[in-house]
């Protein structure tokens, strides 16, 4: 089977925009890394549930926003349109399953924006623009730094993660408009970055960039609130160099949590207790490159692709579904300035 993946990048040096690649699951090899669309700094992207559209953050002159693309048969992307606001581009974008609402989170402007989507997949207009306030004790927490804006499992809520104020917000989504519902506050100075929900909808796991921890949370789908279960370090106790934790993902079967480490250059593996949401550490796996900004599990959960920003490459691993451990299959696959990696759905 051949799977198509997309890579968001910085375009500060060699990159030209969004790239696509093929994962041959029979040959267990990544091939055909090619430019899919030219775009300035498409550092994060998302793929619609029906595999027809890609939404990517973009920079246009002095403005930043989100661009909508149609996916062609050969994997190339055709731009439909884009909507921008003054200031730096967002750092995260997501789309709900029925492709009615797109969300973006902006690290620099303190804003989360929701967009209406037209029938052809293009962006129609901004539905809500929410500006946040707050700060934290760390030197990088002088103001809100919104790093994630996605959806709860039932998509009634937008879930917003703010590295700058150590908070995870839930906002009720009604016809694309956002209304504040609940706030969970982490330990001071953690710098929460991304969140991943367990397939059972009862638990969620937050990656903290500044403290390099995974926070296990219980989730109440009725009111969108979180309750702390426990904190787990994503790096070894004796690792004293700088580590900025990055992405967090859960295996499709819900049995394992994977957490990326920039600095330690690894993916930490945790086994999930599906009764109470607690985690047990399993292992660290080197990403075979420097500064793993993101990684992704393929739709089957049998493979993992990690992208290393500072070494301009990606690595492919097989995943043991019983132990959760990763085994290197391929490394050093060149791709310029990679930041985000996603697979099309089955």
Task: Give your account of this protein's structure.
This protein has 346 residues and is mostly beta strands. Helices cover 0% and strands 58% of the residues. The chain has a 4-stranded antiparallel sheet, with no helix packed on it. It has a 4-stranded antiparallel sheet with strand order 4-5-6-7, with no helix packed on it. The protein is globular and about 45 Å long. The protein starts with a strand and ends with a strand. The relative contact order is 0.13. The mean pLDDT is 97.
Please supply descriptive tags for the structure shown above.
globular, 346 residues, single chain, mainly beta, four-stranded antiparallel β-sheet
Question: How helical, in percent, are the residues?
Answer: under 10%
Low-pLDDT segments: none
Strand content: over 45%
User: Structural class, please?
Assistant: mainly beta
H-E order: EEEEEEEEEEEEEEEEEEEEEEEEEEEE
Strand order of the largest sheet: 3-2-1-28
Short description:
This protein has 346 residues and is an all-beta fold. The chain has strands spanning 2-9, 17-24, 29-38, 45-47, 53-60, 63-71, 77-86, 92-95, 101-105, 111-117, 123-131, 146-151, 157-162, 167-174, 177-185, 192-197, 203-208, 213-220, 225-233, 244-250, 256-262, 266-272, 279-286, 292-297, 303-308, 313-319, 326-334, 338-343. It has no helices and 28 strands.
Layout of strands and helices, then pairs:
Layout: E1 2-9, E2 17-24, E3 29-38, E4 45-47, E5 53-60, E6 63-71, E7 77-86, E8 92-95, E9 101-105, E10 111-117, E11 123-131, E12 146-151, E13 157-162, E14 167-174, E15 177-185, E16 192-197, E17 203-208, E18 213-220, E19 225-233, E20 244-250, E21 256-262, E22 266-272, E23 279-286, E24 292-297, E25 303-308, E26 313-319, E27 326-334, E28 338-343
Antiparallel strand pairs: 1-2, 1-28, 2-3, 4-5, 5-6, 6-7, 8-9, 9-10, 10-11, 12-13, 13-14, 14-15, 16-17, 17-18, 18-19, 20-21, 21-22, 22-23, 24-25, 25-26, 26-27
